[in-house]
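Re: the 493-residue chain
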Amino acid sequence: MQKNMYFDYFGEDCFAAVTEAGKIVEFHLDSENSTEISGNIYKGRVVNVLEGMQAAFVAFGREKNGYLYAGDIPAEAAGEEVRRARLNVKEGDEVMVQVAKSPIGNKGARLSMCLSFVGKDVIYLPLADFCAVSRKITDEAERERLLNTAQKLADGQGGVVMRTNALNVKIADLKEELKYLRGLYAEALGAYALASVGDMVYRDADVHVRLLRDFDLSDVDKIYIGDEKIYRRVEAAFRRTRSKGKLVRYEGEREMFEYFGLEEQIYRLMSPRVPLENGAYLIFDRTEALTAIDVNTGRFTGDTGLEDTVFRTNLLAAREIARQVRLRNVGGIVVVDFIDMSSEEHRDAVVAELTARLQEDRAKCNVTAMTELGLVQFTRKKVKNDNVSMLTKKCSYCKGSGYLLSDSYMAFKIKCAIKKCFAEGYENVVVELNAGLFGYITSRRRFTDSVNGEWKGKRVYMIPHKTYHEEYFTVRGDNNTVMTLPETARLLY
């Protein structure tokens, strides 16, 4: 299966995508207004200590203060027993903090004083006194070998974690990378000494560097880069690696993401409806607490029995759900409403398929068993806002709800406003509203009973406007015996 990576800049925004067989499986956006700041290091000040919660709030130059748990203070900064007993910081303390988790929604960033500098092969922990090996390396002999190597590299100067990529890397190269990471820490210390509270003293890598650093490039075929500056940086970083031959500088006349058909796929992320290959479809419904996914057969009727049709649809849905949550970067709790199946064997097979596909995700996922109602719940580690949030903004009309009010309810609101005018002593009322809503009110004769009853003897004029938003209208009272109205004004009934 062809696997490619794509990187390009648009102004200050960096776009990155990973495709498998032409389909995007990961999409990342670093925007100038992005809340993705994980890995960055700041000079902060403790503004509030909550001993009961073993946490402190720290001002570090962002809109919302970050929170610092007692467990995120290194042991050498406070004796281990003291650190367990209470939070070893006080209000007014200036602290060097790293963002462990970016702010999401209304939650501030999670901060840590246990600093880490991540490389391709190793992670340097300047304030730690231990060494470790990636959990993804399961061979005990290899784990022991790498742990011994890490301890030699650390040499009592902080901690070292061997990443999965370190398996086949020469010790000389590991030493070189660790030397580079130690240099970054020294630079951060120097910047911190001169910084004011709120200043960033170390910036973690941009999205293209993070992906190339954290992604297993062994099965990547091509790495397309549209921006000249990025290409030169990556080319220099890859100079001594086998991945250098995978780099491709895109210089076409069309936008790279549009040329490769990626822009259209990104645009489809905004739709809550996701079609499946057999005519069935998924519906994504995002809430603040969780994401709900509904599986529907749509026009797929199958060619055998109902149970087989449902089973095949659910299997296909499980595969696409795993791809979509990764692509949309959905985090937190996800609840899937699969189509009901009577066979326990089929239910188990669908959950197994979903679990297997989610294991391909770089983000940690945990899946629960299917309930009798056909519901499956799983969690996906959330480290930043989902991509739909990154690519959209709140609707200025619906104020972020994503919906327009129905014609029936809009007519009710107008009726309330008309009655208010009559209650204030006006004999005439002029309503200006959307032309489509006007057509609905008149064709359905929504105000007939009122006109023939409580409004008898009064006059209601309606002025339709094609340019008015469906939820916008004005209502005003008038007691003049002679009124000047446009030709489009219509006396209600």
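Confidence is low (pLDDT under 50) at residues 77-85.
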